From TrEMBL:
Gene3D superfamilies to which the protein is assigned, alphabetical: Aldolase class I (3.20.20.70)
Name of the top EC class for this enzyme: transferase
Assigned protein family: Belongs to the transaldolase family. Type 3B subfamily.
HAMAP family linked to this entry: Transaldolase_3b
Gene: fsa
Protein name (Swiss-Prot/TrEMBL): Probable transaldolase
Length: 220
């Protein structure tokens, strides 16, 4: 499963990219606003740090303007992935862009039928929002299971399931169990995956015993 980070915070992106485990980045207008940075400038900076897809979202609601915005965004870097909302105009834009070889992430997906439409429109990624689904009394992970089942029924579909709106490590674990292709996570969730109390305790115990040996490992 690929790991994307869901943020426009450069310090967090750099820190996670340094682990070698980061496969891409997703942003949205709210995350850009939170960064306080210029959209074009910060997106370019992110694209320079990460080799994988960097989702940048259009804000127009009509197909013609979406296409114009996408044109501007795709000039930022080769790894920009245009993010469009799951609407008729969004999917029209998706179809046009992907047939020209541009990566597209169809966002704000809340039903398996919507995911079916995104796949038919040739989306590179579809982003079902599990956290917001849960928040509204639905079962976010059941949605991922349904989409996986449907996509697997039609091997011709190439759209990757990008689990979005992830709130905790259980969402990540379940996504991997189901076989989702990508999980985009806030930096804190990714960092949390590394942690286990028994790992910390184990290191502490080993180092205590190592001290007793009086030895050191030559580092030069
Ligand atoms: C996905 O690409 C979105 O940016 C994101 O996951 C939304 O998450 P939220 O529900 O925490 O805002």
């Amino acid at each position: 499963m690929k790991f994307f980070v869901d943020t426009a915070d450069i310090a967090d992106i750099r820190e996670l990219a340094d682990t070698g485990l980061l496969d891409g980045v997703t942003t949205n207008p709210s995350l850009i606003a939170k960064s306080g940075r210029d959209f074009m400038e910060v997106t370019k900076e992110i694209c320079d740090i990460v080799d994988g897809p960097v989702s940048a979202e259009v804000v127009a609601l009509d197909h013609e303007t979406m296409m114009k915005e996408a044109e501007t965004l795709r000039r930022i870097a080769d790894n920009v992935c245009i993010k469009v909302p799951l609407t008729i105009d969004g999917l029209k834009t998706c179809k046009k862009l992907t047939s020209d070889g541009t990566m597209v992430n169809v966002t704000l997906c809340f039903s398996a039928n919507q995911a079916l439409l995104a796949a038919k429109a040739g989306a590179t990624f579809v982003s079902p929002f599990v956290g917001r689904h849960d928040d509204n009394g639905f079962d976010g992970m059941a949605l991922i299971r349904d989409i996986r089942l449907i996509y697997d029924n039609y091997p011709g579909f190439t759209t990757e399931i990008l689990v979005a709106s992830i709130r905790n490590p259980v969402h990540v674990l379940e996504s991997a169990r189901i076989g989702a292709d990508v999980a985009t996570m806030p930096p804190a969730v990714i960092k949390g995956l590394f942690k286990h109390v028994l790992t910390d305790k184990g290191i502490e115990g080993f180092l205590k015993d190592w001290e007793k040996t009086g030895q050191s490992i030559p580092t030069a």
